[in-house]
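Q: I'm writing up a methods section and want to include an example of the input and output format. Could you take the sequence below and give the corresponding predicted structure tokens, formatted cleanly so I can copy it straight into the document?
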Amino acid sequence: MTEFYGCRTIRELIPRQARARPDAIALIHRERRTTYGELEARVMRVANGLLAMGLRPGDRIGYLGKNSDLYFELLFGAIAANIVLAPVNWRLAPAEMTTLLQDAEAKVLFVGRGFAAIAASLNLPALDRFVAMDEADCDWVQFEEWRDAQPSNDPDVVASPEDTVLQLYTSGTTGLPKGVELTNTNLLSFIGCYESHDVVRLGPDDVALVCMPVFHLPAPVLDLCVWHRAPRPSCSKKARSQILLMRSHDIR
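A: Here is the clean output for your methods example:
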């Protein structure tokens, strides 16, 4: 069993930092800055909201969108409810997106700005509902409105080190993309590997730029490595935005 800094599951990382540094900045995205205390409350609201939808531990939800601080609220909220998030490669054709979401058996799809029309066109009769994120232009419930209507208490869902927390898909270059289930142990092992080889040299006042798309493994792994040390990730996908962020936050 992998244990890292006393954590047996990923869901323990955010509450631990919220207790230690509640007023420290956890996330930066455009004009939004979120402290660890705020992030913990939002994560728990998301977890309670997912459970209120009728989702149960082990169920899958999907995400179709670009990098955003709200994605990480969704990811850790799902983890707190022991629900598995399956982010979709937004570069895929709609038919390929449909195949991935059908394979994952996603029951809810969270949709980022610019992807509402594509999401609405997908043939997913088993999907229960859509939630719009980052002010996506559609009539679906908005993520922040839905999140803020939920209680902020910890739902106390029991999770084990071997529970799946994230389902990513391969590129499918030799056939159909295949779902790869990543457990708490897998992700904690990534952090341990980075630490043991001194790959990520970050202190509590550093800023790390998350420029890999969230449907790729490096994006969540970097965030986990960052958050266990309590620096602040900054989300971006556009090259010009990355340069501006690196200058403004002294990212090296």
